[in-house]
């Protein structure tokens, strides 16, 4: 999610996202679960930055260009690119046909009962809160 070590460290220090010791080992950001954990935390923070409910456009532009440039014309391209991709995706609840098969959102569900029993030991960088 292109989260920088400085942003991840700030999230850990100031906002309490401490499931991973990112300040002691910034290379953890190369682990997908850790990267998504901090990326999602940053998006959550951006969505209510300064105590205001922020628009999807603001969040995308601030995520890519920083909060100081979120409304600057230089970050408009970030949202345009994001929106062009989003516009091409099928709706979440719609069934999609792919190669003669019907793909519904349910087909992507994963039974996590095995991971719950083992405390997510299969995925050491997967937060146990998700299992």
From TrEMBL:
Residues 1-73 form the Transglycosylase SLT domain. InterPro entries: Lysozyme-like_dom_sf, Transglycosylase_SLT_dom_1. Gene3D superfamilies: 1.10.530.10. This is Transglycosylase SLT domain-containing protein. It comes from Apostasia shenzhenica.
């Amino acid at each position: 999610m292109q989260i920088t070590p400085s942003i991840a460290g700030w999230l850990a220090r100031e906002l309490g996202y401490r499931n991973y010791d990112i300040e002691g080992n910034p290379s953890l950001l190369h682990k997908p679960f850790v990267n998504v954990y901090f990326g999602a935390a940053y998006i959550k923070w951006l969505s209510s930055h300064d105590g205001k409910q922020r628009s999807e456009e603001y969040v995308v532009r601030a995520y890519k260009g920083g909060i100081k440039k979120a409304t600057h014309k230089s970050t408009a391209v970030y949202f345009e690119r994001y929106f062009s991709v989003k516009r091409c995706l099928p709706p979440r609840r719609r069934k999609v046909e792919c190669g003669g098969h019907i793909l519904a959102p349910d087909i992507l569900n994963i039974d996590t009962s095995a991971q719950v029993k083992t405390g997510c030991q299969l995925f050491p960088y997967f937060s146990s809160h998700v299992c």
